[in-house]
Amino acid sequence: MKVWFTEEWVTGFMIGIQIESVVYIKRTKYQHLAIYDTVELGRILTLDNVIQTTEKYEYLYHEAIAHVPLFSHESPEHVLIIGGGDGGTLREVMRHPEVKQAVMVDIDGDVIEASKQYLPLWNTGFNDPRATVLVEDGLRFVAETDQKFDLVLVDSTDPEGPGLALFTPEFYQSIGKILKPGGMLCAQTESPLAMPAMVREIYQRIAKVFPVAKLYTAPVPSYPGSLWSFTCASFEADPENPLREPDDSWNLKFYSPEIHRSMFVLSPKIKRDVGITY
Prior knowledge:
With 278 residues, the protein is α/β, with parallel strands linked by helices. It has two domains: 3-54, Spermidine Synthase, Chain: A, domain 2; 58-274, Rossmann fold (3-Layer(aba) Sandwich), CATH 3.40.50.150. It has eight helices and twelve strands. The protein has helices at 58-72, 88-93, 109-118, 138-144, 169-178, 196-209, 257-262, 268-274; strands at 3-10, 13-27, 32-38, 43-47, 50-54, 78-83, 101-106, 131-135, 149-155, 179-188, 212-219, 227-234. A seven-stranded mixed beta sheet has the order 8-7-6-9-10-12-11, sandwiched between helices. A five-stranded antiparallel beta sheet has the order 1-2-3-4-5. Helix 5 (169-178) links the parallel strand 9 (149-155) and strand 10. The relative contact order is 0.14.
């Protein structure tokens, strides 16, 4: 008998993934957390029955959200990650020797603990002495912290449930106040193919706060539309051209300086749908 995990990507369109075994299930304070071993995608983590990360494709998302802003900054010494409880973004941030401290703030400590225990390909960053992991409300942390950061990465869930507050204009304004001169925000901003209206709204909110706001995309086949968007924003820095290159020893699977530049090339339809005029 085959057992399937199903997720409705958009109304009338559902995907199914065959499950080999259930690794972990828990109803946390905030959401339903599950980790499965699957036939095609390896180990996957879901929240409220929505795929968050998969063993087969996690590198596409995590290398895209981390390395584009990190290589766009001259000296990213202090990095803040909001969300990212699975640890993949932290793992990629910790590859950079320039980073002196990375603070990761996730509201759901159960996701962090499950990731530490069950996602060995993702969780290596947790052990880095430069990493500080806090179980807190990211919105409150950004509003109240006295620290300043070179980069703020918003690796959030979709804009619903506990992730909804991380897509508001007030949140982006608070991020602007904790950036150092030359600092940059980079946030995941949903699928421009599956949900263009949502991407447009999120992008426009960011662009109203930051004079420089550039959307880029990466393929992530396990997410709706299979093309995911990110928005890098700053008061002056332009994220389109990398300032350094990754070390060969990192053995990256997706990111390269050439890929970095190409991710900012958007189709005419995406530009129209999102309202991009640059």
